[in-house]
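User: Here's a chain of 245 residues. Predict its fold as tokens.
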Amino acid sequence: MKGQVALVTGGSRGIGRAIAMAFAEKGVDVVITGLNEERLNHAATEISSKGVRCIAYRADVSKAKEVEGLFDRVMKEFDRLDILVNNAGITRDNLLLRASEEDWDAVIDTNMKGTFLCSQEAIKVMVRQRYGRVINLTSVVAYIGNPGQSVYSASKAGIVGFTRSTALEYAKRGITVNAVAPGFIKTDMTDRIPAKIRQQILDIIPMGTYGTGDDIANAVLFLASPQSSYITGQVIHVNGGMFLG
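Assistant: Prediction complete.
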């Protein structure tokens, strides 16, 4: 994979950062996006320390013009894109009757529309190359649901259908499209969950522990590698056994 170029949306922290670092360790040049410039620049410095080029680009993936600008920059700097990881996502958790239309629009726009816009731009490039890897981040809650996450679950379930259909459309062009469905992963977000709720979550995970960003990065790395060349339209579940697929 050395010398390839990967774009990781939401790559400045958490799972996205772990994925970007995993690519860098394999010699892949990386572009990361996010909304916090300070965090982006800090992550880019760390990723670059692995001896690869890393570009930090501030972009809201739910805005078509900003996504177009992002891909213009990628092509200007590298003139190619081998791997797209649609990781950027938000959640606005609430019970259905308390969720607002604004909550729905924000989550769907970032999680689903962002995946759509970035995939569209990436596949334009990959079709010309006759090669590409697209990996979308969905979630275990797309399959099992979760009280208070009807909006988030809907967005992640939509990504599963999007992944499968897109995979069928471009399989003959040398492009694979797959997804990774994390379970409960230790991040700064889960660290803010009250201790009692954290324990309740652990009780439903057969392995009895949260996953790590590296666990997700390893699955993404496999799907981006030559070893997965005959795999497309699939979802890899990384959840400690809480959902078996």
